[in-house]
Design goal:
Elements: H1 2-32, H2 40-56, E1 80-82, E2 92-94, H3 98-107, H4 115-128, E3 135-141, E4 144-151, E5 154-160, E6 166-168, H5 171-175, E7 191-199, H6 202-214, H7 223-231, H8 236-239, E8 245-254, H9 262-271, H10 286-299, E9 307-314, H11 317-323, E10 333-337, E11 343-354, E12 359-371, E13 374-380, H12 384-390, E14 397-403, E15 407-413, H13 427-430, E16 442-444, E17 451-453, H14 459-469, H15 482-490, H16 505-509, H17 516-520, H18 530-543, H19 548-554, H20 562-571, H21 575-579, H22 582-589, H23 598-603, H24 611-615, H25 620-631, H26 633-644, H27 656-660, E18 672-676, H28 683-692, E19 696-698, E20 707-710, H29 716-724, E21 727-729, H30 731-739
Parallel strand pairs: 2-10, 18-19, 18-20, 20-21
Antiparallel strand pairs: 1-6, 3-9, 4-5, 4-7, 7-8, 9-10, 11-12, 11-14, 12-13, 12-17, 14-15, 16-17
């Protein structure tokens, strides 16, 4: 048997190396060159095979494996790292405002908007003693500055700018960015420190804000704000879900640099598979520099990322040493900041959009105006608080700009031009307390600024509710994507998600996906077809058998995610039991247990609740939402419709002891554990034992931790547990606790 294992090992290691190399090749094509060679499904198949092999043979997992980009356990806090070379900021040279320009032109008639830039240009020419200097110009990306250090061609660590001397170690978060290689080519130096800007691309940022608006969460002000907030997350798994990217533009410490100019450094970045700016010019005179600046200000509106200026550098690196630095800035570079273009227009009306979760979002309808490269006729106002803060009223003359050069935003109201009979805008009164899509009631949840339509059958929510209902993590209905959902709702074949189970194969097959072509006569409209219809109806038949947890998640109830849905299913046999649950009602009546002390919990009299239920992942907030749902008109509609369909989803993880007998609860149920040190078995094995007994496992020690399971070489977590007075268990004590 040992001989067989020895013969398998080299083949496995070779296959892992082949898969890793192939996946990195496709990552480079997709994320850096935008020239994919394979489909997403083919890529998923390759990464799936690699994950499986690495699970079976963990000794062959390399730190630069493509599977290592998904993020690790949440950090307790960011470690501090001192920069190898001080990470200086670049001196900002601001474009002159109209009033500044007018004032200067009184004394100097030839002054232009770029006056400060020309002064900078002359200053470094005087320092060098000659005028024959080639410059480089590239966009100033409005992102978050980072430094990434490679040692022996492997990504060693990544750090934020911080105070320029020391920054936060964000290595785990940076590894989630797939455009950043984990390994450099063999030709790269042993030590290579490269610096750049992390950002969220414009289109991804708009989608991210759309999702936040629909969820009733405050929108990010601009892409940089969203990027900075993401990089500050201690949980890299969350970071991995955000669409971060990075472009490199400079360097720190490098052993035996293979370049002597900024232009050569740009080529080196490309050779090493590190993304750099696609817009790069080398002006040789003051006149050419101004031409470049003007061209960039025009071109940048079509870039996929936010920019707020031009970075200008002296090309020859030998001159950088000659020019030197100040305590804050290098003298051989500057950042010329463009003024955000602002335009005056009129707010003709305010319309209300209804999102997937029923959130009502006010939108400013504007007199069309050309701003930053496009004609703008609408701008989101986000919510009532934003309207009140800026005192925005219908009919106002306003100033708008594109926040981060992307999102049209109302900067301010010109109150001097306000009509005397204008009135403050109140969203609730404007829609007369009803959803503009379905005339259903709207509510403002306590602690939230957004108004929300609570009608389950609201057609504005139907399309996105259907997409969620049919998603892979919900009921996994194949073939029912956006286009089909839109047509089913538009033709009123389906009004709510449960109407899907009334669909007939023939009616689906004849569904016209683009009926507008009938009117224009362009071509024959596209039918869904028998094959696709059969796929959908077959999937819907399978969905009837889906377990209770998936059904609960599929309903899209606020605060009920996958974890909460599984917990509810563990406490109830079927959906009917959930709808009339005394357990959920008692939990809903409790204060949030995060704010309730253990001593107070013991004094409270909740006869139907054992300590497991009170301290499980299903807290009062989630319980309040699901009980309110089934009491609502929409929830009652669900129960009636399911009864008509003869459906009562059944739990596949129901635990009667946990739901009915307090005395049967495990000694560790509801307790939070942290596992550290070397134990007799891998940590995931202990994690499974704890979770099977109703406990939870966290990656970091806090005041909410109940136990630390510590093996040999426990380290800093054991020290912190001792400081906080947390019970520390070895394996023997842990076993005794389980037996109790």
């Amino acid at each position: 048997m040992d001989d067989l294992f020895d013969s398998i090992q080299p083949n496995v290691e070779k296959r892992i190396a082949e898969l890793s190399a192939e996946l990195e090749h496709h990552n480079t094509l997709y994320y850096q060159q935008a020239k994919p060679e394979i489909t997403d499904a083919e890529y998923d198949s390759l990464i799936g095979e690699l994950k499986q092999l690495e699970r079976e043979y963990p000794e062959f997992v390399k730190p630069d494996s493509p599977t290592q980009r998904v993020g690790g356990a949440p950090l307790e806090g960011f470690e501090q790292i001192k920069h190898l070379v001080p990470m200086l900021s670049i001196e900002d040279i601001h474009e002159l405002k109209d009033e500044e320009l007018e004032e200067l032109q009184k004394t100097t008639p030839n002054t232009t908007r770029t006056h400060n830039l020309q002064e900078w240009f002359k200053r470094f020419q005087r320092s060098l003693g000659h005028h024959d200097v080639r410059l480089t110009v590239e966009p100033k990306i409005d992102g978050v500055a980072v430094s990434v250090v490679y040692r022996n061609r492997m990504l060693d660590y990544a750090v934020t700018r911080g105070d320029g001397t020391t920054g936060d170690d964000i290595t785990q978060n940076i590894k989630t960015i797939k455009s950043i290689p984990l390994r450099l080519p063999d030709s790269a130096p042993d030590l290579f420190e490269v610096r750049g800007e992390v950002f969220i691309p414009n289109n991804d940022f708009l989608e991210l804000n759309k999702q936040r608006d629909e969820a009733g969460e405050p929108a990010f002000v601009n892409p940089r704000n969203a990027t900075a907030g993401t990089l500050k997350q201690l949980d890299s798994k969350l970071v991995a879900t955000r669409p971060l990217d990075c472009i490199f533009h400079s360097y720190g410490r490098v052993d035996h640099a293979p370049y002597t100019t900024v232009a050569e450094f740009q080529k080196t970045l490309k050779d090493y598979g590190l993304k750099c700016s696609h817009w790069f010019h080398q002006p040789a005179s003051n006149h050419e520099l101004l031409e470049c600046i003007t061209r960039l200000d025009e071109d940048r509106h079509g870039f996929p990322y936010a920019t707020d200026g031009a970075v200008i550098k002296v090309d020859e690196l030998s001159l950088h040493k000659q020019l030197g630095t100040t305590s804050k800035h290098p003298k051989w570079a500057c950042a010329y900041k463009f003024l955000p273009e602002q335009k005056e227009t009129q707010l003709k009306d305010i319309t209300i959009q209804v999102g997937r979760t029923g959130v009502l979002t006010p939108v400013a309808e504007l007199e069309p105006v050309f701003v930053s490269g496009t004609t703008v006729s609408r701008a989101t106002l986000h919510n009532q608080d934003e309207i009140d803060r800026k005192d925005i009223r219908i009919g106002d003359t306003i100033i708008i700009e594109k926040a981060g050069e992307i999102i049209p935003a109302v900067v301010k109201v010109i109150t001097e031009k306000r009509k005397p009979n204008s009135e403050p805008f109140n969203l609730f009164n404007y829609v007369k307390g009803k959803c503009p899509s379905c005339s259903g009631p709207i509510e403002q949840e306590e602690g939230f600024v957004a108004w929300r339509c609570v009608n389950f059958a609201c057609p504005a929510q139907a399309i996105t509710r259907i997409k969620h209902f049919c998603s892979r993590k919900a009921l996994d209905v194949d073939g029912l994507g956006t286009a089909v959902a839109e047509k089913l709702v538009a033709t009123q074949i389906v009004r709510t998600t449960l109407d899907l189970f009334d669909l007939k194969k023939d009616a689906l097959a004849n569904l016209l996906l683009d009926p507008a072509k009938l009117e224009t006569g362009d071509s024959k409209p596209r039918r869904l077809g028998e094959k696709k219809a059969a796929m959908i109806t077959s999937s819907l038949d399978q969905a009837r058998l889906a377990p209770l947890s998936r059904w609960i998640y599929a309903m899209g109830i606020p605060h009920i995610g996958e974890s909460a849905a599984r917990e509810i299913a563990r406490l109830h046999q079927n959906l009917t039991k959930v709808a009339s649950s005394t357990i959920l009602q008692d939990l809903a009546d409790l204060p949030d247990f995060e704010e309730l002390s253990v001593s107070k919990r013991k004094k409270e009299n909740h006869p139907r609740l054992n300590i497991y239920q009170i301290e499980s992942e299903l807290g009062p907030v989630a319980a309040q939402h699901i009980t309110a749902f089934f009491k609502s008109e929409g929830g009652q509609h669900v129960l009636e419709k399911l009864k008509t369909l003869e459906l009562n989803p059944i739990s596949d993880n129901y635990d009667p002891e946990k739901s009915t007998h307090a005395e049967a609860a495990s000694a560790i149920a509801g307790k939070t554990f942290v596992i550290t040190g070397t134990l007799s078995k891998p940590r995931p094995d202990f994690k499974k034992i704890i979770e099977a007994q109703g406990g939870k496992v966290s990656g970091s020690i806090s005041s909410k931790t109940h136990y630390l399971l510590a093996g040999e070489k426990a380290g800093s977590k054991k020290t912190k547990a001792e400081e906080l007075g947390i019970t520390i268990l070895d394996e023997t004590a842990f076993t005794k606790l389980l037996e109790s």
